[in-house]
Amino acid sequence: MKNLLVNLVDKNKKYTEEGFLASYIPALLKANKDDLGIYVVDIKNNEEYWAGECDVKFTIQSISKVVGLIIALSDNGRDAVFKKVNVEPTGMGFNSIVNLEIRDEKPYNPMINAGAIVTTSLIYGETEERKLERILNFIRRATNNEDINVNQEIYESEKETGDRNRSLAYFMKSNGILEGNVEEVLDLYFKQCSIEVTAKDLARFGAVIANDGITPWGNEVLMSREVCRIVKTIMVTCGMYDASGEFAVQVGIPAKSGVGGGILATVPRRYGIGIYGPALDQKGNSIGGIHVLKNLSEELELSIF
Ligand code: DON
């Protein structure tokens, strides 16, 4: 496995030249565009394998949408959550606003920005600090890494430049989808997007999802089987944004990308996979990462279909 991963990173590194770093959050431009790494956790024997840049920290960005969905579902139950957000792919960019007005009042799914702002607003907690602590604690347990924290510089950069998210949130407030204090919800959303992880952390999180919501290393239940099933399903249909269909055909495993360059992927009952490659394609997914996953899926026959 180790050799296979090294070969796949070497072979696909060239694609990073064709990608671009996310620039709409200025602090993300500090990443090294050439970086590419993959980390795999085999849940059957808890063995870990990696190649490339797997200890480089980057922000979780949209992969936090998976965490927000898990906590919102666990706190509220599926009926309450899906009363506020649909589960249909959009075919639009991740921060598109158009569907909110012309198609349906509810956001299309929890993996686009509008939907994630809603799931974040549904997270329980007496104070905003408590809600963030619950998100951080979840990620720390799911990655087996106590050091997980918010990157303050990226959080501030997001907050300063987050007008598109602000407009999505205020629009949803105006039609009653989003309740409560919009600025507080957005602040929590910006913070959750700015949590720092590595490819290794993502692979461990993927292993928990592959293992039906239970940590393979300590048998701790982090979510119900039902929540895990729903989350995996929505990752397949919506996790790679408007490239989800193509990704399902080419790779065929539940996955979620972020503009920080991470991809969280999970092969049910087999592997958790974490990718880091900050050079993105036109749709905002790690360009080298997608190629590595495609090759890995072909080599090991990972497609669930
Ligand atoms: O809200 C945003 O736009 C970012 N914090 C997250 C977007 C993102 O990661 C989309 N991913 N491909």
TrEMBL record:
Whether Hydrolase counts among this entry's keywords is: yes
GO molecular function, a single term: glutaminase activity
- Secretion signal span: none
Query: Per its UniProt entry, what is the enzyme's top EC class, as one word?
Result: hydrolase
What Gene3D superfamilies does its record include?
Answer: DD-peptidase/beta-lactamase superfamily
Pfam families the record matches: Glutaminase
- Keyword Hydrolase belongs to the record: yes
Recite the UniProt keywords alphabetically: Acetylation, Hydrolase
User: Which HAMAP family does UniProt cross-reference here?
Assistant: Glutaminase
Family the entry assigns: Belongs to the glutaminase family.
Quaternary state and interactors: Homotetramer.
Put simply, this protein is called Glutaminase
